[in-house]
Amino acid sequence: xxxxxxxxxxxxxxxxxxxxxxxxxxxxxxxxxxxxxxxxxxxxxxxxxxxxxxxxxxxxxxxxxxxxxxxxxxxxxxxxxxxxxxxxxxxxxxxxxxxxxxxxxxxxxxxxxxxxxxxxxxxxxxxxxxxxxxxxxxxxxxxxxxxxxxxxxxxxxxxxxxxxxxxxxxxxxxxxxxxxxxxxxxxxxxxxxxxxxxxxxxxxxxxxxxxxxxxxxxxxxxxxxxxxxxxxxxxxxxxxxxxxxxxxxxxxxxxxxxxxxxxxxxxxxxxxxxxxxxxxxxxxxxxxxxxxxxxxxxxxxxxxxxxxxxxxxxxxxxxxxxxxxxxxxxxxxxxxxxxxxxxxxxxxxxxxxxxxxxxxxxxxxxxxxxxxxxxxxxxxxxxxxxxxxxxxxxxxxxxxxxxxxxxxxxxxxxxxxxxxxxxxxxxxxxxxxxxxxxxxxxxxxxxxxxxxxxxxxxxxxxxxxxxxxxxxxxxxxxxxxxxxxxxxxxxxxxxxxxxxxxxxxxxxxxxxxxxxxxxxxxxxxxxxxxxxxxxxxxxxxxxxxxxxx
Length: 549
Hints:
Rossmann fold, GMP Synthetase, Chain A, domain 3, 549 residues, 3 domains, alpha/beta, single chain, five-stranded parallel sheet
């Protein structure tokens, strides 16, 4: 057969923005967003996004410039995920749990030209703005107000989100990407201030990932989706765009609260929701937890949920699916694909199988566990450990302004190296056994132990410091610091002193919940701190007391 060449008819750039355009036609009269007393249809959401995109463009925002959003799960947050790229810009969602110092660093690193901030977080953003160097150009600020709780607009803000919507052109011709490789999102993997890693994903990658997640999770048309997962977490694992693709109803919760979540599930007949294992734990132990009237599908990721928790969730009527992914791979790319024969197994065995991460999703070309030195596949025996690697169309374009880190992650052999350690079982199912040495996952948030250690080292009494994960009843893991003190200090700090010192310098979720003072940290023959020894000590300390701070 002669080799046929592509034509303009099949070279149209893929972009998830077309999901919204289609939903306005197919599901135009159906509910798109629900928040308190506010309800929109898909045709209204499409029109509002066009008007908002028009106003963003009128502010002088040009193609591929970064526009940031600091907001909880409110309708404006959802609309901006479409409106910003419709104006040709790149959307940058900022973790609302970060401190002002970190937010300032990320905004400057991404060179954000425009920032939308929820009124509840305006003081935090203004503090971040005050940390800009005098000669740095500050972004334009727009305030997201709330129904029934809208503060007056100060001189620091150009306008409100709603004002931009109302003043925009509903006939605006939105900016299609020039190529499907054009950047769509910029998401930061952590709040590190020394070397922030800004993950850049393309229109093509997000398009593929969003549809892939829907297929893998078997999401039907017009589901009722409860936003218990923060939209700023890797773009809500791409279900922001996924819900538009299937005409779902987005039930927005600005803050996760178990009683409120249960009330929303019953009121709106919720069918789907996502969250870290800590969300499952909060739901299972809530005072008003009782068997659901109808099954609710819940997708969880991060650290593996314990088997006992999965059993409790099943008893309540939740259908739990466990997946695995990274910000760098655009969402869930490994899931525990369920086999019908497993339904005949005892409940404890079913729960054990569900704790495994599973197999690659359809759109991920390949996933493997390899020897980190030889780059060869490890034995499929469920015992031999190696590094988890990925290959596929959902892989990030790279880290913004960091070619060295990009090259260290995406090797010349064409694989993305996750830094996570796992095993491959004989049946081809993947299971994580450990994480990269610097990462602690607490309540679904990634904490860099190196960053916490860097703060501890600034204390005048600290000689050496190392931070590892300690099991926690509420957060699954919390940072545990091991500290040796200098010999000539005037006053010996207490555990409380060290925690308060960190609290003044770090986002609260990154602050160690436990500080252990030791004479000397264990080291290898070459002088490196043996973190695996410290992890064993932390595990031996048992589960830390429940803390929601």
